[in-house]
Structures are given as structure tokens and as C-alpha cells.
């Protein structure tokens, strides 16, 4: 099956040479081709170029993209979309003055979601989660990472990861799974965090690795949750079983977790709302991708990741939604890109790089998605007619996507 997109006003994020990610000043450059064509064969990008150089081909389907743009789909490298129920009650409590921390200390927060999830059957959890997956696909996401961490028992953590496995089998979107058993200390281990960690290390991690239920291991490294020493224990155990580290770190306090992530060669360090100069310095010249989650800052009213300072220091940056019921109940990457431009002063070029190629890298998918490159998966966005790609972040709260293609096939709403 060959599909031809012709008369594309602007083909965005064109990378002839494969790249892993962009950092610092390179993030300001977003290569494009104006008045272009793109050829897709089956699930991959076969060819692209300027309309002036186009020689007619036999295509099964021709899409006239006059006035419209084509981009790679968004790469959302940090979500928790497998969860049960919602927490709008806590949202109202916060409006009425309670803090996220106070709610968590009263058994709300992550423990509240865990209680709900433990009582939910695998089939019901799948049914609830697939609605969110379908929703983010419609919003232009073509690759997503999904974490466990609302189970907090062996059975429920495995249930979450099995649901993610089923989503992988049933949907054409790229999915990576992360084990986040160390997300909160469950109430039954309230005074015995060490025993909980030991149980994760001795029983759950080996099982997940042997059943190949996850690619990554994550920890919520934060004051009141898991210390740097706890984080190192879990990352080390994960690595031993072939799980690559990714951490939740520097969300509320900077306690040295970034350095621990780098020590264990984390693929990404995520949140980073609280960044000290030494944290920025530590990330220089590493293979660890910093990931900002502006939807979480927006929703909780906490500081935004200092993107300007980080990029100006030469670092790369990826953007993700953190889609979860407590701190970011939205999987809309279009909103994340807008918010990064409006609140974090990222340019549209930086934000689009952060939401495509850099996000792909943060999921180990930079060879498959994240740019318009021959041989990559044909996971594409066709926009509505627009004058420039800056219109995407400019029209905040809306989106400019006319059609989404995954593995070369149009996704029907
Ligand atoms: O990434 N920070 C830790 N975990 C999630 C939110 C957890 C929750 O409130 O349910 C996050 O923000
Ligand atoms: Fe998160």
C-alpha cells in the first residue's frame, strides 16, 4: 500500500541524517521543506522531497495537503494512563485550600488511586485505560510510555503492566512500559519502607523482567517518598534485570536524585521543577534526557521546569504530559507544547523538537519515530490549513490536527 501526500505546505521536522536528540542551540532549529511531497509504503516513510523534484509514482491513495502541514506525531515519554477511577474530589479540596502534600498525608493522592486500582479487575482497568489511549491518539500522540505505580502490591502492579501489554497488542501506537513500584509506600508498609523495597527487589522486579512486562524502571525520588539511597537500590536492582532507569525527581525538592539517575545511566530524569545550578551542571554531556511536564505545573500550581536556563546551558529537553489522575489529568500534547511556549518561554521550534525527536529518545524510540526520516514509522499528523507551525502553540487549548496516521494508516475517530 503506497500513500502519497502532495502539495504539503510545509513538511516539518525533516531529518535526512538520523539523529538521537537535539540539545542547546540546536533546539532552535526545526528543519522543514516547503511545498513538499511525502511517500509512505505500508507502515514506513519511503521518500520525501520538494514538489519541484517530484516524479509521478503509482500510489494507492493520494492526499492533497494544499495549505496544510505534515509533522511526525507527538512522542509522550511520561504517562500513567493505566489507572482506575479519578480524583476530582482532591482537585476540589485543593481549590478549597488543601495542598497536594496534605491530601497525600491523609491517605489521598497515590494511595487513593492504589486503593481504587486494587479493587478493579484487569478487564475493567483495560476498558478504562483504552479510552485514554484512544483519546491521546486522536490528539496526535504516536508513541507513549506508560508507568505502573498505582498497584503497590505484586498482584496489582502486574495487573497494570498486563493491561499495558494488552494495549500494546491491540493498538498501532508505539508503547513502552515502565515499572514504578516505588511510587509511594503502601499503607501496610507505612513504618517499614525497607521491607517494601526489599519485596520489590526480591520478588516483583525479577518476575517483571522474566515475563518481559517492562522496559524501564522508575522511582519517585522525593522528600517523604523515596530517598536517594532508596532510589539507588531500586535502580541498581532494575539494571541487574535489564530494566533501564528513568526517574521522577526534583518535583518538589532537590535532594540529589538527578546525580543518582546519572550514576545509574538513567535514560531520562523527569519533572525537574526545582533545579539547582549543580543539577543542571550534572546533566551536561550525559546521555540522560531531562523531561519537563508543564501540565503538572499548570494543574498543581507549582513552578515550571526552568527550560530557558537549561537549554541555554546547552542541555537537551523533552516535553511530556505526565497524564495521571492526581497531578496532570490531561494527555493533550498540543496543550503541553503551548504551555511550554507560553509559560516556559520555549520557542515553537524548541517545543516541537522537545515533543518529537527528544521525546522519542526518552523512550528509546529515536530510530523509529520522532522525525520525518526515510525508514522511520509513518506516524504522521496532517494539520488543518495554517500559515505557520507557530499556529500550533499559539492556539492554546485547541489543536490543529486534521488527521492522524499511525503505521501509515489513517486513524478513524
Ligand atoms: O508524576 N510525582 C509523582 N507521581 C505522579 C503523580 C502521582 C499522583 O498524584 O497520582 C507525577 O506527578
Ligand atoms: Fe509522573
TrEMBL record:
Biological or metabolic pathway of the protein: Amino-acid degradation; L-histidine degradation into L-glutamate; N-formimidoyl-L-glutamate from L-histidine: step 3/3
Keywords: Cytoplasm, Histidine metabolism, Hydrolase, Iron, Metal-binding, Zinc
MF annotations from Gene Ontology: imidazolonepropionase activity
Cofactor annotation remark: Binds 1 zinc or iron ion per subunit.
Residues covered by the Amidohydrolase-related domain: 69-410
Binding site for Zn(2+): 78, 80, 248, 322
Subcellular location: Cytoplasm
EC number: 3.5.2.7
The protein's enzyme class: hydrolase
Cofactor annotation: Zn(2+); Fe(3+)
HAMAP family: HutI
Family according to the record: Belongs to the metallo-dependent hydrolases superfamily. HutI family.
Role of this protein: Catalyzes the hydrolytic cleavage of the carbon-nitrogen bond in imidazolone-5-propanoate to yield N-formimidoyl-L-glutamate. It is the third step in the universal histidine degradation pathway.
The protein, known as: Imidazolonepropionase
Native species: Flavivirga aquimarina
Amino acid at each position: 500500500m503506497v500513500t502519497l501526500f502532495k502539495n504539503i505546505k510545509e513538511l516539518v521536522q525533516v531529518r535526512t541524517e538520523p539523529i538521537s536528540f537535539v540539545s542547546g542551540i540546536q533546539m532552535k532549529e526545526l528543519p522543514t521543506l516547503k511545498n513538499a511531497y511525502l511517500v509512505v509504503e505500508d507502515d514506513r516513510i519511503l521518500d520525501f522531497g520538494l514538489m519541484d523534484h517530484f516524479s509521478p509514482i503509482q500510489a494507492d491513495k493520494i492526499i492533497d495537503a494544499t495549505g496544510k502541514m505534515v509533522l511526525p506525531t507527538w512522542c509522550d515519554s511520561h504517562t500513567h494512563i493505566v489507572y482506575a477511577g479519578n480524583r476530582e474530589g482532591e482537585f476540589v479540596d485543593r481549590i478549597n485550600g488543601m495542598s497536594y502534600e496534605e491530601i497525600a498525608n491523609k491517605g489521598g493522592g497515590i494511595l487513593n488511586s492504589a486503593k481504587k486500582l486494587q479493587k478493579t479487575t484487569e478487564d475493567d482497568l483495560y476498558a478504562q485505560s483504552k479510552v485514554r489511549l484512544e483519546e491521546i491518539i486522536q490528539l496526535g500522540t504516536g508513541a507513549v510510555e506508560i508507568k505502573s505505580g498505582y498497584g503497590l502490591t505484586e498482584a496489582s502492579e502486574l495487573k497494570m503492566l498486563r493491561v499495558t501489554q494488552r494495549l500494546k497488542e491491540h493498538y498501532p501506537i508505539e508503547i513502552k512500559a515502565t515499572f514504578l513500584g516505588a511510587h509511594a509506600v503502601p499503607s501496610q508498609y507505612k513504618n517499614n519502607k525497607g521491607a517494601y523495597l526489599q519485596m520489590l527487589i526480591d520478588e516483583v522486579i525479577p518476575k517483571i523482567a522474566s515475563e518481559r512486562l517492562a522496559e524501564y524502571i522508575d522511582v519517585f525520588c522525593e522528600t517523604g517518598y523515596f530517598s536517594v539511597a532508596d532510589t539507588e537500590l531500586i535502580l541498581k536492582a532494575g539494571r541487574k534485570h535489564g530494566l533501564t532507569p528513568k526517574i521522577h525527581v526534583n518535583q518538589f525538592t532537590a535532594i540529589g536524585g538527578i546525580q543518582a539517575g546519572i550514576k545509574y545511566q538513567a535514560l531520562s530524569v523527569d519533572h525537574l521543577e526545582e533545579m539547582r545550578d549543580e543539577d543542571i551542571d550534572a546533566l551536561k554531556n550525559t546521555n540522560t534526557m531531562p523531561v519537563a511536564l508543564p501540565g503538572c505545573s499548570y494543574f498543581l500550581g507549582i513552578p515550571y521546569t526552568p527550560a530557558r536556563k537549561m537549554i541555554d546551558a546547552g542541555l537537551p529537553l523533552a516535553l511530556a504530559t505526565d497524564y495521571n489522575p492526581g497531578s496532570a489529568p490531561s494527555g493533550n500534547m498540543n496543550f503541553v507544547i503551548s504551555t511550554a511556549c507560553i509559560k516556559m518561554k520555549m520557542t515553537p521550534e524548541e517545543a516541537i523538537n522537545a515533543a518529537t525527536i527528544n521525546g522519542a529518545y526518552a523512550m528509546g524510540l529515536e530510530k523509529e519515530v520522532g522525525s520525518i526520516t526515510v525508514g522511520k514509522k509513518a506516524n504522521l499528523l496532517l494539520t488543518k490549513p495554517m500559515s505557520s507551525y507557530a499556529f500550533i502553540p499559539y492556539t492554546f487549548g485547541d489543536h490543529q490536527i486534521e488527521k492522524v496516521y499511525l503505521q501509515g494508516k489513517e486513524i478513524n475517530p
